[in-house]
Amino acid sequence: MAVANGSAIHAQTMRVPAPDLARELLEHLGPTVVAALAGARDRKQPYKWASHGAQPRQESVTRLQVAYRVWSTIADADGPNVARAWFIGANPRFDERPPYLAIREGLFGDVVAAAEEFVDHR
What we know:
single chain, mainly alpha
């Protein structure tokens, strides 16, 4: 079931423009986390992306897409507070580092799998 749901969320995510990805993630995760997961050096950069003031590099767009997909997976199942806690909390799948850092490091498949496992084990 997680695979079909994951495919639907993936398809939805690919249709969301980068400024909207940044805006949604900023609302729920804040600028420091969004900048870090996207690989931006400046925590103000996500605001520039969200306001159509700057176009993120493709690497950053990919990270934003993965983060949005994972955010949607967890928030749809358990709500935004649980999703935020999952993103910023220590996670045994990543040697007790938070998943947003794993996204920055490019561990996309691992992060998606960890989110789906988390939702499946509720």
